Amino acid sequence: MNTLHDTQLSMLDLVAVREGGTVAEALAIARDTARHVEQLGFTRYWLAEHHNMPGIASSATAVLVGYIAGATSRIRAGSGGIMLPNHAPLVVAEAFGTLAEIYPGRIDLGLGRAPGTDQMTMRALRRDRIETEADFPRAVSELQQLLGPRLPDQKVVAVPGNGTEVPIWLLGSSLFSARLAAERGLPYSFASHFAPAMLLQAIEIYRRNFRPSAKLDKPYVMIGVPVIAAPTFT
C-alpha cells in the first residue's frame, strides 16, 4: 500500500474570482499558485472547465493550460477536465496538440462527459446538438485516433495534434467513466469532492475491470478531494 510519502500530489484550480476582485487578478493568482506548488514538488496543475459562472474564470480551459505551462518549467499542466460534449474532438485535438508541441512532455488532457454548466448555457455551447450515452465513448475514441499516429486511410488529421500522444485521462463522479477507463486502459480520476460516497465503489470497479493498453499496463487512479490550507503557527 502506498504511503503519503510516495503519493504524488496535484492541484485542481477553478480560477475563482474573489469577492471584490477581477478576472485578471484571479488569473494572476492561478499563475502564482502554479509556480508555488511547482516549487513544493507537485506533479500536476489542472484547470476545470465551467461556463456562465461569475465566480469562476476557467471557461477557456485550453488557453489557461497554455498560460500555466508558460509560467512554469516542470509541472504538468492540463485539463481537469475538458467537458467533451461541449467540443468537437478535432478542435480539442488541435488545441492540446498545439500545447504539446509548445510544451512537450508537460500537457495532460482530462476529459469529462458533463456540460459543466446550466441547461441554457449548455444549449448555447452545443447549439442544436443532442447528446446520447454512446457519444462520449465515441468521442474519446476519435480523440485517441486524432492524437495518435496517422493511419494509412485516415482522411481527417489534427495538425497540430497528430502523433503527439497527449495523455488522456477519464474523469468522473459516477461509475460510467470508471468502467470506460478500465475498458480502454486509461488513467482515471474520480471527483470525490462531488460524490464521496461513490469513491471506493468507482475505484474498485476500475481496478477490477482494468485491461492493460499500450498507454498503461496497470490501473492508475487520481482522487479529487477538497482541501483547506493555511499557515500553521505553534
Task: Summarize the topology.
Layout: E1 10-13, H1 23-39, E2 44-47, H2 61-71, E3 76-83, H3 89-102, E4 107-112, H4 119-126, H5 135-147, E5 168-172, H6 176-184, E6 188-191, H7 199-209, E7 221-224
Parallel strand pairs: 1-2, 2-3, 3-4, 4-5, 5-6, 6-7
Helix pairs in contact: 1-2, 3-5, 6-7
Terminal Cα span = 32 Å
The H-and-E topology, N to C, reads as: EHEHEHEHHEHEHE
How would you sum up the major sheet? 7 strands, parallel
Amount of beta strand: 5-15%
The CATH homologous superfamily of the largest domain: Luciferase-like domain
CATH topology of the largest domain: TIM Barrel
Identify the CATH architecture of the largest domain: Alpha-Beta Barrel
CA radius of gyration is: 18 Å
Give me the number of helical elements: 7
In order across it, which strands form the biggest sheet? 1-2-3-4-5-6-7
CATH class descriptor of the largest domain: Alpha Beta
List low-confidence stretches.
Answer: none
* Residue-averaged pLDDT: 91
- Domain module tally: 2
User: Helix/strand/pairing class, anyone?
Assistant: alpha/beta
List keywords for this structure.
234 residues; 7-stranded parallel β-sheet; 35% helix
